[in-house]
Amino acid sequence: MTLDVGVLGYRFMGKAHSNALERLPMFFPDAPDIERSVLVGRNESELSAAADQFGFDTISTDWEEVVDEVDVFYNLGPNHVHAEPSIAALEAGTAVFCEKPLAPTLESAERMAEASREAGDDVPAGCAFNYRFVPAIQYAKGLLEAGELGEIRHVRGRYLQDWLVDSDASWSWRNDEEMAGSGALGDLGAHTVDLLQFLVGDITRLSGHLRTFVDERPVEGSDETRPVTVDDAYSAQVEFDDGAMGTLEASRYATGHKNDHTIEIEGSKGSLRFSLERLNELEVCLEHNRGYETILVTDEDDPYLDHWWPPGHVLGWEHTFVHENYEFLSAVEAGEPFEPSFETGLSVQRVLSAIQDSDERGEWVEIE
Question: pTM score, two decimals?
Fold first, then answer.
């Protein structure tokens, strides 16, 4: 069986997922056979060039012509185009893989999750939280499930970047509430919320704070400026369902931090910490240790590593997409649910929405 794949979006995420699809048969020979059938976008000339570069057979400037003609639909467009194409694909019985955050608003995310429920478990609908598929994170998950850290007491998650530090950096759709929904909160915080709920459990209540540092930005290629209508940074105090207390933050104004996604989890018997900028490593402190030790998660028996290189030959950011696509496409071929699902994406959206609500109300908010 060969799965025909249609992909909406050909820029950052389009390139990342197309790269993963190219590498799958070489390193994961048991992955489903796929055909990169059609690449979807608005600019026909740019689209044609991208299709040639990424290895797609055809192009289309209308997603409505594609969603019921392929077996799998990847929605990698900006946040404001996540809902309608994804819902239409699910209504046509087409499996959907959608970039995060699931939607710009909670209402749209709820509609998407409902469409997934109606399509049924044999039509997988996945939300692209690729950091779950870092081998070191999978290793950490194993430690937590085995109870190696004991009762979890403290959880910290931060995601820091600095690409907007310059107040003259150009305006983009990521600075617009209508298109993005939120700023650092949805762009970066969604990853942190998903990763910590994956590792620790559901967040049940929180107190959030949002801040915008630059109110308007220049439009590239013109003398105009446009308003910034999203947050530049957020922070939150959170409580998990098992009683653990946590702090979260993200900023696109953290000078010196390029892509620093860091988590720390501390329990009654041990602790761990991880940074995306050193993604092959996991720092672990267990009962018998006098302090942290650094584990290089590259051995053949570590998650996914039997598909790659000899021990010590490290992986990179792009490999997380290969693992993610392998798991999703395998679920599609088997007609089985995939995690993280649209329901999982909705649970993250509820937390993001609660952080915004808490900031507006100036008080703690329960997650409904």
Answer: 0.96
